[in-house]
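Question (not urgent): is this output format expected?
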Amino acid sequence: MVGGAAPVLARGQRAAALCLLLGALAAWSAGAGVLPNVGRWPDATVVALLLIPASFLVPWLALPFASARGLAAIAAALGVLAVLLSLAGMGSLFNVTKLLTLTFAGFWFLQLFEALSWVVIVAVVIPWVDAVSVWRGPTDYVVSEQPSLFERVSYAFRLPGEEGSANIGPPDILFFALFLATAARFGLRVGWTWTCMVGMLSLTVVVTVAFDIGGLPALPAVSLGFLLPNADLLWRRWRSGVRP
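Got this back:
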C-alpha cells in the first residue's frame, strides 16, 4: 500500500503546485500593466529569465498526467473553457487556459506516435517548416496581416508596465509538451530536456532583442532543446538497432 500511495501523493502534490502556478501566471497577466515600465532590455530579461521558465513549468508539473486516458477529451474540454473565458472577457484566465489546453494537446499528440524514431524525425523536420512559415508562410501572413488573430490564439508573456506582450504560437507550446513527454516515456533525460528547451527559448528572446528582429521561429529552439541533451542516447539506440 505504501509503494502504491507514493506516486498518487506525488501526482496530487504536482496538481496542487500546478493550480498555484496557473493562479500566479493569471495574476501576473492581469496585474503586470500597473508595474513600472522598465524598458526594452529589462523586459527581455523578465521574459527570458522569469516568464518563460515559469510558464513552461506548466508542462513539467502536468507531466504525470501525460499517460492518462482521455487526453483528447481533456484538451477539448479545456479548449471549450478557454473560448468561454474569452467570450466572458476574462483575458488573464483565457491566457493560462490556452497554455494548459495546448499542454494536454501535446501529451495527447504523443499517443499517436508508436516509436521514438517518429518523434526524432518530427524534431528534425519541424524547425525547417517553422522557419519557412515565419519567413514567407502562414505564420508570416497571420502575424503581419491578421495580428489580432495571432494575439488571440497565441500565449502572451505580459510585459511590465505595458499593454503589449511577447507572444509564442500554439505549435511551440504543443511540441514543447510533446517532446517533454517523449523524454519521460522513452527514458531520456527529462530534466535536461526541460532545461535545454527553456534555455533555447530564452536565448531566442535575447537574440530577437539584440538584433532588433520582429520575431524568430521558436520551434527550432524547442527541437534543439530536445535533441541536444539526448543526442548520445538517441545515437546509441540507433547504433544498437533499438527501435522503441
